[in-house]
Amino acid sequence: MILKGSQRSGGQDLAAHLMRMDDNDHVQLHELRGFASDNLRDAFKEAEAVSLGTKCKQYLFSLSLSPPEQERVSVEQFEQAIGQVEDRLGLEGQPRAIVFHEKEGRRHAHCVWSRIDADSMTAKTLPFFNRLMDVSRDLYLEHGWTMPRGMLDAAQRNPTNFTLAEWQQAKRQGVDPRLLKQVVQSCWKQSDNQKSLERSLEERGLFLAKGDKRGVVVLDHNSEVYSLPRLLDLKTKDVRSRLGDAKDLASVDAVSKSIGERMTPALRRHVEESRERFRDRSAKLGGYKAEMTSLHRQARTELDERHKADWDAETKHRAARLPKGLVGLWHRLTGKYSQVRALNETEAKASQERQSEERQTLIDKQREQRAVLQQQFKELRKREAEQLLDLRRDIGRYLKLSRGDPARGKDRDQSVGLRLER
Known about the structure:
Distance between the termini: 51 Å
Number of helices: 13
Largest sheet: 5 strands, antiparallel
Structural class: alpha+beta
Strand content: 5-15%
Shape: elongated
Order of helices and strands: EHEHEHEEEEHHHHEEEHHHHHH
Strand order of the largest sheet: 1-3-5-4-2
Number of domains: 2
Radius of gyration: 36 Å
Mean pLDDT: 80
């Protein structure tokens, strides 16, 4: 698992951050060791008070432990990892707090130690960065998890820490030449002269223009150029007989500039419409998330309450096995007391393990449900990023067209009609 550690002060700010329910689906204060307090704020106040007897300003060491997203990591495995860190960094026996967070279907842990040794009133020195990397590698190898490439070779590490492919490389769907020919031929059948053909084509986002060699061409909304005779499967002279010599048609560059001027504001509207649509979808998913989080928290509370009731009843039953008074004294003399006590301890341990497994099973089931919803969030964000990137690229291209692109002055006859032959 990924381990990130830092020396720090500001215990109250850290406690507030670790116990934030609004930023996490679930927060559990799992352990407070070596503190008199039973809550995180007061525990860190104790650590700060002890540090005042030293010159140490950064009296806490904070560690985050993030396992691979898809792996099932039990509480015991987190505790073992924390134990390995303690051993490597010389923090054995230091007061510590362990907090579990769940967010977006992932579970990770935070462990915070007091750096102050109360016996010697000195701060533990922590050359931790290299040693934490060693512990992290050991954990990946120990559990058989796929190790990040950056751990194998620092040169392969992704400096952005997220998959770039999710946020770029938008794919645009091209125009089917067969459909384009069908549309243009339909417009041709409905028209009897140049003006009526122009109007009919423009209703479908197509535009007539004068080609470089006095031919008539069609431009689509992307300013792609197509030979009109090829689209109609007619000879050039047959097209001219209806349209004339096309002297009054605008040039390809002029039509392209006009397309850019028309399309730019339309695409900007599309950007706003896209953002609004994704906001609505995201809000809907957010509602599902809030409802799911509430139900999950309720289920965990009910399980904890049931576990407490069961534990209290079992403890009462085990205590009843140990007689008091003369009978209890006799049991001690005969050795029966030790046998019953050993049985009680065995049953108590089994009960703890059973409850721990039940809670872990519930957590894993809820994480699976949350992961499904999180995947929908990821897909929505990916689609939004791709769509907005595509629209912005188009806006940039049309702005360039509306200003006039000198590169478009090249001979177009090389490209006219070729697209239909591909």
